[in-house]
Fold these 4 entries.
Entry 1:
Amino acid sequence: MKPRAEIVQFPVHGDSRGSLIALECGGDIPFEVRRVYYIYGTRSDMPRGFHAHKHLKQMLIAVSGSVTVSCEFGATKERFLLDSPSRGLLLEGLIWREMHDFSPDCVLMVFASEHYREEDYIRDYQVFKQENLSWI
Ligand code: T46
């Protein structure tokens, strides 16, 4: 799977009462969702992540607050600011990710294509760099 990291804009159904966002698998989320988790109460000086996934696809959404996600894949290094529930970050393929600068109110919700399996993680940066060579 070719590595891909991109921002996806979701349609907002807004009226005088407020806003509603509906996400559908196969549409806004381009994979079947098998797991949902969320990260909150993270200190701004406590980065997380520092790993890549071998097969997992994920959609990251800051449903509250903001967080920056730094991604490295192939020859690309890119930072994504997630600061709206109406935008998600789609991550597919071998991508080293680091999440940092969490705002105190940040709730980072993640939709994932697979159940949790530690074997899918690459947590050693040197191993990632080696595997990443094939995408440069
Ligand atoms: C990712 C980024 C964006 C589970 O038991 N089940 C789960 O589904 C997950 C995601 C984690 N855990 C356990 C494993 C660890 O003992 O929760 C603990 C914290 O996980 P981790 O250190 O991997 O968390 P982050 O914030 O560094 O990374 C997480 C996801 O693990 C990862 O897939 O891409 O968020």
Note: The mean pLDDT is 97.
Entry 2:
Amino acid sequence: MAKKLFIKTYGCQMNVYDSARMADVLAPLGYGPTDDPAKADMVILNTCHIREKAAEKVFSELGRLKIDRDQRQAEGNDMIIAVAGCVAQAEGAEILRRAPQVDIVLGPQTYHRLPEMVARATRASAARRAAKAAGVSRKQLPPRPGVLDTDFPVESKFDHLPEATVPQGVTAFLAIQEGCDKFCTFCVVPYTRGAEFSRPVVQIAAEARRLVDQGAREITLLGQNVNAYHGAAPRGDAEWGLGDLIRYLAETVDGLARIRYTTSHPRDMEDDLIAAHAEVPQLMPFLHLPVQSGSDRILEAMNRQHKVERFREIVAKLRAARPDLALSSDFIVGFPGESEADFLATMALVEEIGFAQSFSFKYSMRPGTPAAALENQVPEAVKDERLQRLQALLNRQLADFNRQMVGTILPVLFEKRGRYAGQLVGKSPYLQPVHAMAPDAMIGRIAMVRIDGLSHFSLAGTVTDETAAAVSVPAAGVFSREARA
Ligand code: SAH
Ligand code: SF4
Ligand code: F3S
């Protein structure tokens, strides 16, 4: 009988990718997906540790799962419960101590070993069921062993993962780099994901071809520090940066219409990568480039290793290379020691640059990070108030950006059916959802769509040309800063 697997994913795109790969690892063991945890033979919580309350959310979810499992056991079934991801890495032992219902705790770098872990948990489950059937009382049942694997193994999980079996669809994620050596003083990622590591170009290209064979037309290259990529080149012992990798994928992977990458650090935004934005039409003119703050003093305290001026220079170069480029970013308000003047510098930078979309957060103290030990923490009420002001500005920029699309013609990659009969939903080059009437046969294809109107966060339009080139053509200058001012 086929076994059912339920995975709940928290956090960043890398976790989304990891969840897909865990499903791949478990498919040969007979596990297929379900979207109902109560029906699952195995549940994986793929967790995120980036901000507070993440761990608490995991524990309350585990409480709910225990109820589902008790119910399943009463019906003669069982459920393996696994906690994966960054909370598992940071607090693995604590999870097993506080939540004895958990069978498996595994970190982000060990999921290729899931089959062994599942085998151990399954043996333990079988032993318990046999004992129960033999009349052993609940208290005397053999314990669940609690498998813990939060190693940073020397071998790369990527060398041990099976080929992807669960198709990701028209748009797909591909991890090319993992981990982080930057140690921003607020951030847990270097501790939960480990040191920077880049996959070889050949391995990435093979995975990209498989994804395209399974129907992907757009691939987002992922890494915690994706533009620090430095992987082994296809021939010889050279290393390639991200710019060369993108050129290579664009040239050699037939049918790959769109390439994106995330998340970048301004420090690693080198000229060669910026040049790729001018050269490679498949590379979408939309870049997520977190700056965190507009104050040099705060950037320094955050250990971001660059000044505000450097960010301005990069943006200018990017816009020169690709005039239709739009930017998104991440911001933290209320970092320890942030004064009103520092915060106003962030607001001024946002006004100056103009972002199409952004994510903004209140600084959250993370155990074990240097910033958590700083004394001049900003009061919660001040953080709240600054976040509101920043978000009002960012939301206005988002609305302006979307509004200036009306009347333009954009290449749209259709992904799936919309809510209404005959309607499809796709994405613009700027990741805006676009609704238009189009036949199902257009799914997975790019059409030119005239944008007629806006609704909330999406655009509505009319297909003007179904045979648009697979590659989007820059509409020179239309979306540049000048046009928006
Ligand atoms: N590698 C990326 C970001 C990874 S985390 C980079 O270097 O930019 C995603 C975002 O979460 C960060 O950009 C930051 O804005 C936010 N973040 C990380 N740690 C945080 C913390 N302790 N408190 C608040 N926000 C945080
Ligand atoms: Fe975290 Fe900084 Fe690394 Fe990004 S660059 S993952 S914010 S330590
Ligand atoms: Fe969260 Fe880990 Fe990603 S902490 S943001 S899931 S790298």
Note: Confidence is low (pLDDT under 50) at residues 470-485.
Entry 3:
Amino acid sequence: MSKTTKDYIRITTHSLSEMKAKGEKIAMLTAYDYTMAGIVDKAGIDVILVGDSASNVVAGHETTLPITLEQMIYHAASVVRGVERALVVVDLPFGTYQADSKEALRSAIRIMKESGAHAVKLEGGSQIQDSIERILQAGIPVMGHLGLTPQSIYKFGTYTVRAKEEVEAEHLIQDAQMLEKAGCFGIVLEKIPAKLADKVAKMVNIPIIGIGAGADVDGQVLVLNDILGMNKEFSPRFLRRYLNLDEEISKAVKSYTIDVKRKDFPNNKEQY
Ligand code: KIV
């Protein structure tokens, strides 16, 4: 999108690498629907992730595993319709890219064609290298995701900090270098020691976006519902809440219910 036709410039994967080079931090948030994506985009976010965390925060599942490709496409297409400026990245859901690279490419193509999104994100390193390379060869931008990868929760057993031990940290560094070499435009590092994230961010030239990975990375990502305070039960150390929407929504619904019950709503001005 050119500056002459609109009063904004679309964020691209290229813009993100320029931001890293300039030392400008990248702000990324999730969104799952048209209305919220529009608000987040107009507020100036750089990247919107249509995360498979929709499985948790929208659908109420305990893990991200149940969400389907069709459901991700539905969320992604809704988000894309609400966004004018931000780069829209979509998670490939569990089971749509691990079996083989052809299936991975078919899944990524469906997301790009049917939602209009700009890039896909896949969890994992060397074990899915073939899939990542095949998707990239088709011209689809790929973002990596290392550290705590929630689609592997049953392998890990817990959501605690990853790569605290040297062997796992070394493995993560090798995976990050492989993702850069393969052509990924960025990597999400989730819940790893801040020192390790800093080391990776300095080691590779592509942007490193952290969630629970400290301040010395190239950008930050959080789940929108979490920063808005929509779930009091979820309180990890890395989360900063900017609103208590849970309480605000509850107050509004209670007031509306009272107004209806006492026949105060609608009043004379609120009817035809
Ligand atoms: O699905 C998601 O929301 C994510 C972020 C936590 C990075 O992958």
Note: The first helix runs from residue 13 to 22.
Entry 4:
Amino acid sequence: MVVPRIGKQSLCGIIGFAKSSKASLRCPEILRDGLRRLEYRGYDSAGIAVLSQGLLTIVKDVGSVEKIIESPGFSMLDGGVAIGHTRWATHGKPSKDNAHPHTDCRKRIAVVHNGIIENYMDLKRLLLEEGHVFTSETDTEVIAHLIEHFKSLGEKSFEAFKKAVSMLRGSYALAVIDVDEPDKIFFARNVSPLLIGLGSGVNFVSSDLASFVKYTNRVVVLMDGELGYISASDVHLELGGKPVDISSRIRVVELDAQSIEKGGFHHYMAKEIFEQPYALAQTFSALQTQNLSEVLKILAEARRVYIVGAGTSYHASLLGAIAFKRFLGLEAEALISSEFKVVSRAIKWGDVVIGVSQSGETIDTLLALREAREKGAKTVALVNNPFSTIARESDYVISMRAGPEIAVAATKTFTTQVLTLLYIVARLAEFIGSIDVDYRALIQGLKISHEVAQNILKASVEICKAIATELARKQSAYYLGRVFGVPIAMEGALKLKEIAYIHAEAYPAGESKHGPIALIENGFPVIFIYLGFLDELLESNVEEMKARGAYIITVAQGDTTLSSIARYSNTIIKMPKAPLEARLVTYAIPLQLIAYYTSIMKGLDPDKPRNLAKTVTVI
Ligand code: G6P
């Protein structure tokens, strides 16, 4: 397999379409739907460029996509070719000038870009010397001027585009329109994801399937180095100057437009929390149909297993690594993807590295897996998006079926990741003939985890709302657990930070007396995760916290007989009786609800937390 060069990326989203005049679709609708679907990738500014009757219209601004959609004249736009962009600033602050699309001096070429052009300063210097006038601080603008430069030397638009692309170093997904080729969108991909959507009388180019799935589910995933153009009726693709036949590359994806609507909920996050029973059931049945024999074989033979991920996916990785060790006694270690270098020298041929990533595009995880492969390890992708770069580049792919997750804060993909990792552990126990693990019982527990999730959701909404009312007034909170409870506590703390902007930290409960307890004063919220597994270890930690005035919230099985829970808790979230593996999958759910309702109580928008993006493709 060719390992593409490593590049830095940014987090923007791009959409472009070319439609025939006979197609009934309207330009403003396609752009509006596309931009809204892309907004989760980044949202400090947005913009569009539309070609109509030889004229290029550009609307862009700082702020949310709604500003563009509601701008005067937007609903009247009438073009057969258009591009749009949502930005998460890397080069240059969020501002109207820095928003995409960017144009050449004569405003005849418009460019949208996701990625980072590493040599843009050199190119800009040359273009400035030639007299080009720049209007932004971005790296992207050089692309428009470069195309203009090659056209001024006599090249036709597409040739000029290709020459410009050949000069770029770094990562890019590009969509470019040019007044001189009014029915085409030029595109190119290197490192940053880009897809072509094939509709009837309309074709799309986008960084994200969700932006056009309402119109078609026939897609071609572009590879690094590919470039070409779309028109309403044609797709031209080439690699290294040679045409590429796309007919064998067309895939029909199972994603319906409804699954990316809010479905009656106020926020995607709420929708995604409440659809966890479905996501778990779907993922469990998908796992049963996947052939895992090769993966089980390499895991059984591995000297050591590393599980890597970022953010929420790291927390799932941690829980997975604990399960490998506690249940199977195997050498397993979870690592934050961006810290993979810690073990670079320790990786040996035959080790297995599992990359856990909802999107399959997180650059830190991708780079960790690339490094692992270079060192001779086998790589396994555990992803929610089987078409992603991480899936494509890994030796083996295990796909979850959580459905699209739009809210920035991951919820259903955490529980489905945990389910998947525990399923692998169960199947591995069967494969190696472990006498310590009853794999049938483990699988049975996982099978019913969707029902447990349903019961938790039914039982804990009101109590989580009440807790949120308390937390909304606080500055900080601790989340404490032991063993498996630690990653769940970490996930709870991350959720509260991300969407409610409350400083929250998680610790192994036993560690809390070695420093964190210094902060405890009257009313300081401490959330204890009683998993029904080594719970007695938590008893003295709860007492210690209570003695210093902490406001104690416990997540615990309703039938527990532990006295510390009843004696010291201010509030108990009673969890239904369930086997351990189903508890491991589902105990993050009340913590997600607490964070969600706290965000609402504070008047925040949980779907759009500040400074964050859903898919992080910057190092
Ligand atoms: C971002 C998101 C997190 C996510 C992390 C890893 O930081 O905001 O919610 O957990 O990326 O994403 P991945 O797609 O690799 O799971």
Note: The first strand starts at residue 13 and ends at 19.
